[in-house]
Amino acid sequence: MFNGKPKSKYGNTRTEGYASKAEARRAAELRLLQSAGRISGLEEQVRFEIIPKQDGERKAEYWADFTYWENGVYVVEDCKGVRTPVYNLKKKLMLLVHGIRIKEVA
Fold first, then answer.
1. pTM, entire model
2. Would residue 11 count as lying in a domain?
């Protein structure tokens, strides 16, 4: 039965403007860590170009859920429930193009 809201493809529930409850929970945790001085420079929904625009093709991008600095290390973090083939490819491209290994949290 349709209740007026489209069902999420992977069963997640949008919460407080975030794509899932896990992402909303992690955002709250990271804000607390930043307030306590354990991390700094917290940003949300940060875009990385992984393949530039080419003739007749659009550019490919990866959107990180969170980025921040922890002990002098730049961290790119993603809340993952389902690791799709597209995500797995983008994760490898982030390492190849930007030298960044994505930290995955559930």
1. 0.80
2. no
